[in-house]
Write a structure and sequence with these properties.
Elements lengths: L5 H15 L1 H4 L11 H10 L3 H6 L8
């Protein structure tokens, strides 16, 4: 069941790509902060968020 809507999906993609771009700008172990982009991008492309499901939130108009 999809629970991530279009505006939420777009925001997750933008934030995910921004976090992923940190790989090029940060040095050393700080590059690991780019790993925060993976859950954002995964939930954006699958349109399924486990946290939303646990909280009963639906930003998608069609359930």
């Amino acid at each position: 069941m999809k629970n991530v809507g279009s505006w939420d999906r777009a925001l997750r993609v933008l934030l995910g790509l921004a976090a992923l771009s940190l790989i090029y700008f940060l040095t050393g172990y700080w590059k690991l902060t780019a790993l925060f982009s993976l859950p954002l991008l995964f939930t954006a492309f699958t349109q399924k968020c486990v946290i939303y499901r646990l909280l009963g939130i639906h930003s998608c108009k069609i359930h």
